[in-house]
Amino acid sequence: MNGGLRGxxxxxxxxxxxxxxxxxxxxxxxxxxxxxxxxxxSERPLKVLLVSSTGGHFRGLQELEGYWKQCDRVWxxxxxxxxxxxxxxxxxxxxxxxxxxxxxxxxxxxxxxxSVLWNERPDLVLTTGAGVAVPFIAIGKLLGAKTVFVESIxxxxxxxxxxxxxxxxxxxxxxxxxxxxxxYPQATLIPSxxx
Length: 195
Hints:
The chain has helices spanning 9-12, 20-25, 56-62, 65-68, 81-86, 103-120, 133-142, 161-166, 178-183, and strands spanning 47-52, 72-77, 92-94, 124-129, 146-150, 172-175, 188-189. By secondary structure, the protein is an alpha/beta fold. It has a seven-stranded parallel sheet. α8 links the parallel β5 and β6 (172-175). It is globular. The two termini are 16 Å apart. 42% of the residues are buried. Mean pLDDT is 82; it is low at 1-14, 25-29 and 32-40.
């Protein structure tokens, strides 16, 4: 798990809301290691839409399990052997891929984003990228969800294209490197164990 978020849960405990009422009260969206389970209707568990492509982006969301495992959650990702096995007991919407330079799949995923977000009504859209996240963050924001992007640890000097595209729609942007924090002071630094 070198470079992942799992080993940093004490640091992340500064970071995401845990109930729907906290989302409504919170302007910035901090990540919390273990969300509390709500006991009253106004404190229902947070409903989270987890969006990522496969590979390292998917692994990044998996490494945040300490946060989302107690939330009411729905996934959007690409179908692969890894994602099918890991999400066998989860609610999943399979996105259209590839998304790079493929206008047809962008439009299909945009249509899917409208449908999924309208029907699921998440409190929070949490993503680690990549391109599949763009329509879900944009439509999620339009429908009133809080939006959070956790940038890849591999992005040291510049944001990914998907993070740049959705930045105006984000309630919170998390980066792993001080160099990015200098360029994007509105971001929150997740200190790396590698530094």
